[in-house]
Amino acid sequence: MDIRHLQYFLEVARHNSFTKAAQSLYITQPTISKMVRNLEEEIGVELFERVGKRVSLTDAGWVLFSQAEVMVKSFENMTVHINELMELKRGRLRIGLPPMVGASFFPRVIGRFCEQYPGIRLELFEAGSNKVEADVGSGVLDCGVILLPAKEDIFDHYSFVNENIMLVVHPSHPLAERSEVAFSELEGERFLLFHEDFALHNRIVDECVRAGFHPHVVYKSSQWDFLSEMVAANIGITLLPETICAELDAERFRIVPLVSPTLKWHLGMIWRKNAYRSFAMREWVRFSEECLPTRHPSK
Fold it and tell me: Which residues contact 153 (CB under 8 A, 6 or more apart)?
Protein backbone atom coordinates (compact mmCIF):
# COMPACT_ATOMS: atom_id res chain seq x y z
CA MET A 1 0.00 0.00 0.00
CA ASP A 2 1.26 3.46 -0.80
CA ILE A 3 -0.23 6.89 -0.28
CA ARG A 4 -1.68 7.00 -3.83
CA HIS A 5 -3.87 3.98 -3.08
CA LEU A 6 -5.41 5.89 -0.19
CA GLN A 7 -5.73 9.14 -2.15
CA TYR A 8 -7.57 7.36 -5.01
CA PHE A 9 -9.77 5.47 -2.57
CA LEU A 10 -10.80 8.69 -0.83
CA GLU A 11 -11.62 10.41 -4.10
CA VAL A 12 -13.89 7.55 -5.20
CA ALA A 13 -15.59 7.58 -1.80
CA ARG A 14 -16.23 11.33 -1.96
CA HIS A 15 -17.72 11.20 -5.46
CA ASN A 16 -19.42 7.79 -5.12
CA SER A 17 -18.16 7.23 -8.64
CA PHE A 18 -15.02 5.89 -10.30
CA THR A 19 -15.69 8.03 -13.36
CA LYS A 20 -15.99 11.32 -11.46
CA ALA A 21 -13.00 10.44 -9.25
CA ALA A 22 -10.89 9.74 -12.34
CA GLN A 23 -11.92 13.07 -13.86
CA SER A 24 -11.08 14.88 -10.63
CA LEU A 25 -7.62 13.29 -10.49
CA TYR A 26 -6.98 13.67 -14.24
CA ILE A 27 -6.33 9.95 -14.70
CA THR A 28 -8.15 7.22 -16.60
CA GLN A 29 -10.99 5.25 -15.02
CA PRO A 30 -9.24 1.87 -15.55
CA THR A 31 -6.23 3.21 -13.64
CA ILE A 32 -8.22 4.26 -10.60
CA SER A 33 -10.30 1.06 -10.69
CA LYS A 34 -7.13 -1.02 -10.71
CA MET A 35 -5.67 0.94 -7.79
CA VAL A 36 -8.77 0.43 -5.66
CA ARG A 37 -8.95 -3.24 -6.59
CA ASN A 38 -5.29 -3.70 -5.57
CA LEU A 39 -6.07 -2.01 -2.26
CA GLU A 40 -9.01 -4.31 -1.61
CA GLU A 41 -6.88 -7.37 -2.39
CA GLU A 42 -4.12 -6.19 -0.07
CA ILE A 43 -6.49 -5.53 2.83
CA GLY A 44 -8.61 -8.60 2.08
CA VAL A 45 -12.05 -6.94 2.16
CA GLU A 46 -14.36 -5.14 -0.26
CA LEU A 47 -14.35 -1.41 0.26
CA PHE A 48 -17.13 -0.44 -2.16
CA GLU A 49 -20.51 -1.86 -2.99
CA ARG A 50 -20.90 -1.47 -6.75
CA VAL A 51 -24.37 -0.89 -8.14
CA GLY A 52 -24.11 -0.04 -11.83
CA LYS A 53 -21.94 3.05 -12.23
CA ARG A 54 -22.60 4.20 -8.68
CA VAL A 55 -20.59 2.92 -5.73
CA SER A 56 -20.97 3.28 -1.98
CA LEU A 57 -18.75 2.40 0.95
CA THR A 58 -19.09 -0.91 2.72
CA ASP A 59 -18.73 -1.12 6.51
CA ALA A 60 -15.04 -1.89 6.06
CA GLY A 61 -14.84 0.98 3.60
CA TRP A 62 -16.17 3.42 6.20
CA VAL A 63 -13.55 2.26 8.71
CA LEU A 64 -10.75 2.78 6.18
CA PHE A 65 -12.24 6.11 5.05
CA SER A 66 -11.92 7.69 8.52
CA GLN A 67 -8.36 6.45 8.97
CA ALA A 68 -7.26 7.22 5.41
CA GLU A 69 -8.30 10.86 5.73
CA VAL A 70 -6.01 11.25 8.75
CA MET A 71 -3.10 9.45 7.07
CA VAL A 72 -3.35 11.39 3.82
CA LYS A 73 -3.63 14.70 5.70
CA SER A 74 -0.57 13.81 7.79
CA PHE A 75 1.35 12.94 4.63
CA GLU A 76 0.39 16.24 3.03
CA ASN A 77 1.45 18.17 6.15
CA MET A 78 4.74 16.29 6.21
CA THR A 79 5.35 17.16 2.56
CA VAL A 80 4.64 20.83 3.22
CA HIS A 81 7.03 20.88 6.19
CA ILE A 82 9.79 19.17 4.23
CA ASN A 83 9.34 21.64 1.38
CA GLU A 84 9.54 24.49 3.87
CA LEU A 85 12.76 23.05 5.28
CA MET A 86 14.22 22.81 1.79
CA GLU A 87 13.17 26.39 1.10
CA LEU A 88 14.64 27.49 4.48
CA LYS A 89 11.28 28.65 5.80
CA ARG A 90 11.66 26.66 9.00
CA GLY A 91 14.21 24.68 11.00
CA ARG A 92 16.21 24.68 14.22
CA LEU A 93 19.92 25.14 14.90
CA ARG A 94 21.74 24.61 18.21
CA ILE A 95 24.94 26.67 18.25
CA GLY A 96 27.61 26.77 20.95
CA LEU A 97 29.49 30.05 21.46
CA PRO A 98 32.18 30.87 24.04
CA PRO A 99 31.41 34.18 25.81
CA MET A 100 34.23 36.19 24.21
CA VAL A 101 33.33 34.93 20.75
CA GLY A 102 29.59 35.44 21.01
CA ALA A 103 29.84 39.04 22.15
CA SER A 104 32.64 40.05 19.81
CA PHE A 105 31.70 38.47 16.49
CA PHE A 106 28.19 37.10 16.28
CA PRO A 107 25.47 39.65 17.19
CA ARG A 108 25.53 41.18 13.69
CA VAL A 109 25.75 37.80 11.96
CA ILE A 110 22.91 36.32 13.99
CA GLY A 111 20.79 39.41 13.47
CA ARG A 112 21.21 39.30 9.70
CA PHE A 113 20.56 35.55 9.56
CA CYS A 114 17.35 35.83 11.61
CA GLU A 115 16.19 38.71 9.44
CA GLN A 116 16.75 36.72 6.25
CA TYR A 117 15.40 33.41 7.62
CA PRO A 118 12.78 34.27 10.28
CA GLY A 119 11.38 30.73 10.30
CA ILE A 120 14.66 29.17 11.41
CA ARG A 121 14.98 29.07 15.20
CA LEU A 122 18.51 29.63 16.51
CA GLU A 123 19.21 28.22 19.97
CA LEU A 124 22.43 29.70 21.35
CA PHE A 125 24.36 28.04 24.17
CA GLU A 126 27.16 29.88 25.96
CA ALA A 127 30.03 27.64 27.04
CA GLY A 128 33.80 27.38 26.91
CA SER A 129 35.56 25.97 23.87
CA ASN A 130 36.19 22.56 25.47
CA LYS A 131 32.51 22.15 26.37
CA VAL A 132 31.39 23.30 22.90
CA GLU A 133 33.71 20.80 21.22
CA ALA A 134 32.43 17.94 23.39
CA ASP A 135 28.76 18.83 22.79
CA VAL A 136 29.17 19.15 19.02
CA GLY A 137 30.96 15.82 18.98
CA SER A 138 28.16 14.10 20.93
CA GLY A 139 25.39 15.68 18.82
CA VAL A 140 23.99 17.86 21.63
CA LEU A 141 24.88 20.88 19.48
CA ASP A 142 24.74 21.15 15.69
CA CYS A 143 27.80 23.36 15.48
CA GLY A 144 29.89 25.72 17.55
CA VAL A 145 32.98 27.85 17.84
CA ILE A 146 36.20 26.49 19.34
CA LEU A 147 39.83 27.38 19.63
CA LEU A 148 41.53 25.60 16.74
CA PRO A 149 42.95 23.18 15.77
CA ALA A 150 39.92 20.92 15.50
CA LYS A 151 40.11 17.12 15.50
CA GLU A 152 40.13 16.51 11.77
CA ASP A 153 38.88 12.92 12.06
CA ILE A 154 35.75 14.12 13.88
CA PHE A 155 34.99 17.65 12.66
CA ASP A 156 34.78 19.79 9.56
CA HIS A 157 35.37 23.47 10.11
CA TYR A 158 36.14 26.91 8.76
CA SER A 159 38.30 29.48 10.55
CA PHE A 160 37.38 33.13 10.88
CA VAL A 161 39.89 34.78 13.20
CA ASN A 162 43.60 34.25 13.81
CA GLU A 163 45.22 36.84 16.01
CA ASN A 164 47.64 37.22 18.92
CA ILE A 165 47.02 36.83 22.62
CA MET A 166 48.24 39.92 24.48
CA LEU A 167 49.41 40.56 28.02
CA VAL A 168 47.11 42.89 29.97
CA VAL A 169 48.53 44.62 33.07
CA HIS A 170 47.79 47.53 35.39
CA PRO A 171 49.48 50.84 34.34
CA SER A 172 51.67 50.68 37.48
CA HIS A 173 52.92 47.17 36.72
CA PRO A 174 56.69 46.84 36.13
CA LEU A 175 56.04 45.39 32.65
CA ALA A 176 53.54 48.11 31.66
CA GLU A 177 55.94 50.19 29.56
CA ARG A 178 57.67 47.30 27.81
CA SER A 179 57.38 46.96 24.03
CA GLU A 180 57.19 43.17 24.39
CA VAL A 181 57.41 40.50 27.06
CA ALA A 182 58.68 36.91 26.87
CA PHE A 183 56.60 34.18 28.45
CA SER A 184 59.43 33.26 30.78
CA GLU A 185 59.27 36.74 32.34
CA LEU A 186 55.78 36.01 33.66
CA GLU A 187 57.07 33.59 36.28
CA GLY A 188 55.95 34.68 39.73
CA GLU A 189 53.04 36.78 38.41
CA ARG A 190 49.50 36.39 39.73
CA PHE A 191 47.45 35.05 36.82
CA LEU A 192 43.78 35.79 36.22
CA LEU A 193 42.54 33.14 33.78
CA PHE A 194 39.45 31.65 32.24
CA HIS A 195 38.01 28.47 33.70
CA GLU A 196 39.28 25.07 32.56
CA ASP A 197 36.23 24.73 30.25
CA PHE A 198 37.94 27.32 28.08
CA ALA A 199 40.65 25.95 25.78
CA LEU A 200 42.60 29.19 26.24
CA HIS A 201 43.14 28.28 29.91
CA ASN A 202 45.05 25.13 29.00
CA ARG A 203 46.96 26.85 26.20
CA ILE A 204 48.26 29.50 28.60
CA VAL A 205 49.16 26.98 31.30
CA ASP A 206 50.95 24.79 28.74
CA GLU A 207 52.99 27.73 27.45
CA CYS A 208 53.99 28.67 30.99
CA VAL A 209 55.14 25.10 31.64
CA ARG A 210 57.13 25.11 28.40
CA ALA A 211 58.72 28.38 29.58
CA GLY A 212 59.86 26.60 32.75
CA PHE A 213 57.29 27.46 35.42
CA HIS A 214 53.78 26.69 36.64
CA PRO A 215 51.53 29.78 36.71
CA HIS A 216 50.24 31.06 40.02
CA VAL A 217 46.51 31.32 39.22
CA VAL A 218 44.70 33.50 41.77
CA TYR A 219 41.31 33.70 40.07
CA LYS A 220 39.30 32.02 37.28
CA SER A 221 36.24 33.37 35.50
CA SER A 222 34.10 32.77 32.44
CA GLN A 223 33.84 36.51 31.66
CA TRP A 224 36.66 38.48 30.07
CA ASP A 225 35.31 41.80 31.34
CA PHE A 226 35.50 40.56 34.94
CA LEU A 227 39.09 39.43 34.43
CA SER A 228 39.99 42.82 33.01
CA GLU A 229 38.37 44.61 35.95
CA MET A 230 40.46 42.47 38.30
CA VAL A 231 43.53 43.70 36.41
CA ALA A 232 42.29 47.28 36.75
CA ALA A 233 42.12 46.67 40.51
CA ASN A 234 45.80 45.59 40.33
CA ILE A 235 45.02 42.07 41.57
CA GLY A 236 46.99 40.32 38.83
CA ILE A 237 47.65 39.98 35.11
CA THR A 238 45.61 38.39 32.38
CA LEU A 239 46.05 37.37 28.75
CA LEU A 240 43.39 38.33 26.20
CA PRO A 241 42.97 38.34 22.41
CA GLU A 242 43.68 41.47 20.40
CA THR A 243 39.98 41.90 19.58
CA ILE A 244 39.12 42.10 23.28
CA CYS A 245 42.11 44.27 24.10
CA ALA A 246 40.94 46.82 21.54
CA GLU A 247 37.88 47.42 23.73
CA LEU A 248 39.87 48.19 26.90
CA ASP A 249 40.38 51.72 28.19
CA ALA A 250 43.97 52.75 27.42
CA GLU A 251 44.14 54.84 30.60
CA ARG A 252 43.24 51.91 32.86
CA PHE A 253 45.25 49.14 31.18
CA ARG A 254 48.50 48.51 29.38
CA ILE A 255 48.52 46.02 26.51
CA VAL A 256 51.88 44.38 25.81
CA PRO A 257 52.70 41.88 23.01
CA LEU A 258 53.93 38.45 24.10
CA VAL A 259 56.96 36.85 22.44
CA SER A 260 59.05 33.71 22.80
CA PRO A 261 56.59 32.36 21.92
CA THR A 262 53.61 34.28 20.60
CA LEU A 263 50.29 32.71 21.55
CA LYS A 264 47.54 32.58 18.93
CA TRP A 265 43.78 32.94 19.23
CA HIS A 266 42.69 30.93 16.20
CA LEU A 267 38.94 30.38 16.10
CA GLY A 268 36.77 28.23 13.90
CA MET A 269 33.21 27.04 13.49
CA ILE A 270 33.03 23.23 13.73
CA TRP A 271 30.40 20.60 12.90
CA ARG A 272 30.51 16.81 12.86
CA LYS A 273 32.20 15.24 9.86
CA ASN A 274 29.99 12.90 7.78
CA ALA A 275 26.92 13.67 9.93
CA TYR A 276 23.59 14.70 8.40
CA ARG A 277 23.40 18.45 7.89
CA SER A 278 19.95 19.99 7.66
CA PHE A 279 19.16 22.59 5.03
CA ALA A 280 19.21 25.24 7.77
CA MET A 281 22.61 24.03 8.96
CA ARG A 282 24.10 24.16 5.47
CA GLU A 283 22.86 27.69 4.98
CA TRP A 284 24.12 28.80 8.41
CA VAL A 285 27.62 27.52 7.59
CA ARG A 286 27.61 29.28 4.22
CA PHE A 287 26.07 32.47 5.57
CA SER A 288 28.24 32.80 8.69
CA GLU A 289 31.47 31.99 6.85
CA GLU A 290 30.64 34.68 4.31
CA CYS A 291 29.99 37.21 7.09
CA LEU A 292 33.09 36.33 9.13
CA PRO A 293 36.18 36.82 6.95
CA THR A 294 39.41 35.63 8.53
CA ARG A 295 41.28 38.18 10.63
CA HIS A 296 45.04 37.86 10.94
CA PRO A 297 47.44 39.07 13.64
CA SER A 298 48.42 42.72 13.61
CA LYS A 299 52.02 43.38 12.66
Answer: 273
